UniProtKB/TrEMBL annotation:
PROSITE patterns, per database record: WD_REPEATS_2, WD_REPEATS_REGION
Transcription regulation among keywords: no
IFT80/172/WDR35 TPR domain boundaries: 622-708
A family per Pfam: TPR_IFT80_172
Superkingdom to which the source organism belongs: Eukaryota
WD repeat locations: 102-134, 184-216
Principal place of residence: other
Subcellular localization(s) per the UniProt record: Cell projection, Cilium
Keywords: Cell projection, Cilium, WD repeat
All residue ranges annotated as the IFT80 second beta-propeller domain in the record: 300-594
Official protein name in the record: Intraflagellar transport protein 80 homolog
Length: 736
């Protein structure tokens, strides 16, 4: 992936260009020290002077009112915020007429930003103050007062926090009164630019020490670049949060969200003072010190799926290659490509007005449908359908281009969705609430264009990532949740154990489900861990570590050589893992194929075949997986042999005693107890009339209060309960 640069032969501005901004995906506005506001049309390649600004107005920053907040509202739709060196900010319409000018600071106003919700704006200046203003330009509060000029500031994702520079430090200030700011030293030189992305909640900063750095909101450094030749003068996140652009003297760099660089361009532009992304995340515009406005669009984006490789060769063409037979297809489109996704034997390509769906079996006749809103921010694929996140809604389509449903939830903001906040499978949609990060909304995808709201999942800590497994039936659907403490929890979406979060592992940095089986790969602290059977939490959690393949401390040197520090799991197809190192290089790794085969045998109830394979392989991890699968499937004979193979003698004796019980319901209850599901065991016994056994179960577990509740659950008076217990006791004694 790289930038393809477009630069006019002669500059259109006669002085320094200070700031640029996108009005839509085809129009860019620019202004500079020549006091001229210009409009650039990228379709017709025309440049028009919109207005002559006052001679005393030397612009320092420019920001359009967020368009996502003005759908259906005419007022403020094309309102432009321009800050200037005379201490004022100006609200200007798209025709260049100044609607309002406000004296904001003593000295230059160095930055001005609309909030993401459009409810207000912030300004920061040379006087060391940060001020919050209403949409109409009325002062609400002065949140920062310091003796140091504030060169850059940015809103937090929920518009209730502000990030600003303070010399060599970065400060996050909450707007709530009496809140303590989070401050840390970020650079060795003066910090000139900061940017905070609402989708991934990451911060990027750059300064006079000629470095750019990536941070989380706790001030933890995630990436530190090499020293450049000149100070970093411009930074900007793409709307989706997967990329950011860095500008310096005669330098334009495209970077991944982690920090490593995709490409480095050296245009003859002088210093790039400002960078702005288009709303679709495919183009950037830059304000240059020599009077130019530089444009760049992304090309050579490359995707892989099994034996297929798709790459953008230009703005309107994609090349597809089958590496197994070197067959190539060249796909041409009438308009530029905004988004593309490859997976599950389909290629989905989005242009500004249409969506093209290709099958790997036929590249000549794609399915095509028109977009409803014309601005797609994300494409997410599953085996049977795919999801498009547009400007104001989320749509689910099948691969025949038919609309299945459009999920909605309270406070939805589709433009800020990313791969960590939403996940889909064949029958379920999971999305993290954008107002309350502790809540995950769940939807069941019906068969006849229907959508059923499932009970939401509530966690006690804020959730940062959700993902659904792709294989198995709807009753086996699992959701993996990573919270702010980086702890990984697992829950069943449906069934008797649904919504019960169980902790799988701590210190999770990255995770990915296998596309074919219910196997989970994670980067845990400094280990790469593959959980061959995560459902072990619901079968026998004591086997958790025995069912995982871990490169532990004995292999740390090997791990660091192969994957480096803080790798990211990109894909997990079959038994092949693709891991992205911190330097951007891809490393392919493989796991044993036997767990995948074992999953296939057990899902088809071929327990004899599973036993034969385990006897042949003689691997303790495989035997542990089979033991957990057999317990979950209530297969006593298989579970007994598997436990014996891994030397779990106590459980072997327990299963032998269970096999002696002549009543099937009682056997199932004992197996539920082995899995740790006391309530399920009690329900099984009570539903089948075994009140005495339910009481004795709670006695053996020292659950004294549960005995009282049993009497309340059965609809019998105390005398009849005693009579029923005595009859059952006699029957139990006769059966031995």
């Amino acid at each position: 992936m790289r930038f393809k640069i477009s630069l006019e032969k002669e500059p259109k501005h006669i002085d320094v260009v200070c700031c640029v901004g996108w009005n839509n995906t085809e129009e860019v506005y620019s202004c500079g020290d020549d006091h001229v506001l210009k409009r650039w049309n990228l379709v017709t390649n025309e440049t028009v002077k919109v207005a002559d600004l006052p001679q005393e107005l030397y612009p320092t920053d420019l920001h359009w009112f967020p368009r996502a907040q003005v759908v259906g509202k005419k007022q403020g739709l094309d309102l432009l915020l321009i800050t200037s060196a005379d201490g004022k900010f100006h609200l200007i319409n798209r025709n260049g007429r100044i609607e309002k000018s406000v004296d904001a600071h003593k000295g230059a106003v160095l930055t001005g930003r609309w909030s993401f919700d459009g409810a207000g704006l912030l300004t920061a200046g040379e006087d060391g103050q940060v001020k919050i203003w209403s949409r109409s330009g009325m002062l609400r509060s002065t949140i920062i007062q310091s003796d140091t000029p504030i060169y850059s500031a940015a809103w937090g994702p929920d518009s209730n926090q502000v990030l600003h520079t303070l010399g060599k430090n970065l400060v996050i200030k909450h707007l709530a009164p009496n809140s303590k700011p989070n401050r840390w030293k970020a650079h060795d030189g003066l910090i000139l630019k900061v940017a905070w992305n609402p989708s991934n909640n990451l911060i990027v900063s750059g300064g006079e020490d000629c470095r750019y750095k990536v941070w989380d909101t706790y001030g933890r450094q995630l990436f530190n670049s090499i020293a450049h030749d000149y100070p970093i003068t411009a930074l900007s996140w793409s709307p989706g949060g997967d990329l950011f652009a860095v500008g310096s003297f005669n330098t334009l760099r495209l970077c991944d969200r982690v920090g490593w660089s995709y490409s480095l361009e050296k245009p003859n532009t002088g210093s790039i003072f400002n960078i702005a992304w288009s709303s679709d995340g495919t183009q950037v515009a830059g304000a240059c010190g020599n009077g130019h406005v530089i444009f760049a669009h992304i090309i050579e984006r490359r995707l892989e799926w099994k034996n297929y490789e798709a790459s953008m060769t230009s703005r309107k063409s994609i090349s597809v290659r089958d590496v197994s037979n070197e067959a190539r297809e060249q796909l041409e489109f009438p308009d530029r490509v905004i988004k593309l996704a490859l997976g599950y034997n389909h290629l989905v390509v989005v242009t500004p007005s249409q969506c093209h769906v290709y099958s790997t079996r036929n590249w000549n006749t794609p399915g095509i449908f028109n977009l409803r809103e014309g601005s797609v921010s994300m494409v997410l694929l599953a085996e049977r359908h795919f999801l498009l996140a547009e400007k104001a809604s989320v749509y689910l389509y099948n691969y025949d281009c038919k609309l299945i449903c459009s999920p909605r939830w309270a406070g939805m903001q589709p433009e800020t969705l990313n791969l960590a906040s939403i996940s889909i499978s064949n029958d379920t949609i999971a999305v993290r609430d954008q107002l309350d990060s502790k809540t995950v909304h769940l939807f069941e995808v019906g068969s006849a264009r229907s959508l059923v709201d499932l009970p939401s999942l509530h966690h006690w800590v804020g959730v940062v990532e959700v993902t659904l497994n792709q294989a198995g039936s709807a009753l086996e659907r699992q959701i993996a949740v990573v919270d702010r403490n980086r702890d990984l929890y697992l829950a069943l979406v449906r069934g008797s154990l649904h919504k019960k979060l169980r902790k799988l592992a701590p210190m999770i940095q990255s995770l990915c489900w296998n596309t074919d089986t219910n196997i989970l790969a994670t980067v845990q602290d400094t280990n790469l861990t593959v959980w061959y059977y995560p459902m072990v939490l619901y079968a026998d959690s004591r086997l958790l570590k025995k069912t995982a393949h871990i490169k532990d401390s004995r292999h740390v040197l090997e791990f660091n050589i192969e994957f480096g520090k803080s790798p990211t799991v990109m894909s997990f197809v079959g038994n092949h893992l693709r891991v992205r190192r911190m330097d951007g290089s891809l490393v392919n790794s493989v796991i044993s194929p036997y767990p995948t085969v074992l999953h296939g045998y057990t899902s088809a109830s071929r327990w004899d075949d599973a036993l034969r394979m385990c006897r042949f392989v003689r691997d303790h991890t495989l035997w542990a997986c089979l033991a957990a699968m057999a317990v979950y499937g209530r297969e006593l004979e298989t579970a007994e042999e598997a436990y014996a193979a891994i030397d779990e003698v106590d459980k072997v004796f327990y299963l032998q005693n269970v096999k002696k019980i002549p009543i099937r319901a009682a056997q199932l209850a004992e197996m539920a107890l082995l899995s740790g599901n006391v309530s399920e065991a009690e329900n099984l016994l009570l539903q089948n009339g075994f009140v005495f056994r339910a009481i004795m179960t709670n006695l053996n577990l020292h659950n004294w209060n549960r005995q009282v509740s049993i009497f309340h659950r059965v609809e019998l008076d105390p005398e009849k309960i005693n009579e029923k217990v005595e009859q059952e006791y006699e029957r139990e004694r006769d059966n031995g």
